[in-house]
Amino acid sequence: MNLIKPYFCLVLFAFITGTTFQVAKEALLYFSPAQTGALRFILGSFLLFIFVFINDRKLLKVNKEHLKSFILLGIVGVFGFNFFFFIGMKKASPINAAIIIALGPAITIFLSYLLLKTKIVFLQYLGTAVSFFGVLVVISDGNLSTIRSVLEGEGILFIFLAAACWAFYSVGMKKYLKGISTVQITTFTSFFGTLSLLVLILFSGDYHIEWTKTPNSAWFAILYMAAFTTFFGYLFWNYGIQKVGPDKAAIFGNLIPVVAMVTTWFLGESLNLFDIIGALLVITGIFIVNSKVNRIESTRKIETSTNG
Asked: How big, in percent rounded to 5, are the helix, strand and coil portions of the chain?
C-alpha cells in the first residue's frame, strides 16, 4: 500500500489540476492575474495553516536552515508559477496552454539531472517522449495545423515560464528540503508565495475589486482553486515528489490534458478515436518512465559482481 500511495496522490493531483484551466478562465474574467493568484493562495494558505494547527503544531516552527529554501521555493514555485500562468492564461487558449505545460516533465528531467545529478536512463527519455506525443494527439485530434499554431499563440511564452518555475519547484524540494514534512513544505512555500503576490499587488496598485459586480461563479472559481488546486493539489504533488523523485513524478503532469478531455466528455462532448489513442499513449509513457525494468537490471548486476 505504501508503494501505491504516492502514485495515487500524483494521479489525484493530475485529476484536480486537469479541471483548473477552464476554472481559471472564469476567474480571469473578473480578476486580474495577480488578484487571481493572491486570492487563491490567501485562502489556500489559510486552509493549510488551519490543517497544521489542528494536526501537528510542531510543524509551525521553521528551522532557520530551511527558511531560505522555503522562501526561494515559495517565490519560484508559487509566486513565479502563478504570476506567469495567469498572465499567460489571460491570452492563451486552454489547448495551447496544456501543450506547453506538457513540456514540464522534460524540463523537470533536465533540472533533475543538472541539480540532483540523477541518472537518467533511456526508458525515461522514451516514456517522456511517448507521453508528450500522447498529449499532442489528445489536443490536436490528429490535426497538425493545431500543433503548428501553438507557438504563434499569445501568452505561450508566459505559460512556458510557468512550466519552468514548476519544474524548479519540484526539483528544488528534493534538493533543498529533503526529508522535510510534505505538509510543512506546502504550507510555508504557499505562505511566502502569497506574500510575494501581495507585494506585487501593493506596488502595482492592482488591489481594487468590484465586490458587488463580481458574480458567484468567479468566487466559486477562486474557492475551487484554493481548496482543491492549492490545498489538496500541492499536498498530493509534494508528497509524490518526496517519495518517488521529480524525474519520475513529473510525467504524471501529462495526465492533466487527458483529465481535461474526460471532463469535457462528462459535460456532454463526445470522445473520438484520437482522444482514446492519445490517452493510452500518455498512460503508456507514465508506465515506461516508472518501469522497474532498470531496477531489476541493476540488481542483477550487483548480484553478479558479488558472486564473482
From this structure: 80, 0, 20
Q: Taking Cα atoms as reference points, which of 94, 137, 80 lies closest to residue 282?
A: 137
| 112 to 121, 244, 307: CA distances (angstroms) | 12, 13, 33
Question: Among 78, 4, 6, 70, which Cα is nearest to 249's?
Answer: 6
3-state secondary structure of 290: coil
Which pLDDT value is given to residue 102?
A: 78
pTM: 0.81
Instruction: Tell me how far apart the terminal alpha carbons of the chain are, to the nearest angstrom.
Output: 36
Per residue in 214-261, pLDDT tens? 999 999 999 999 999 999 999 999 999 988 888 888 888 888 877 877
Q: DSSP assignment, residue 271?
A: P
Q: Could you give the CA distance from residue 246 to residue 172 in angstroms, rounded to a whole number?
A: 9
Dihedral sign from CA coordinates of 224, 228, 233, 234: positive
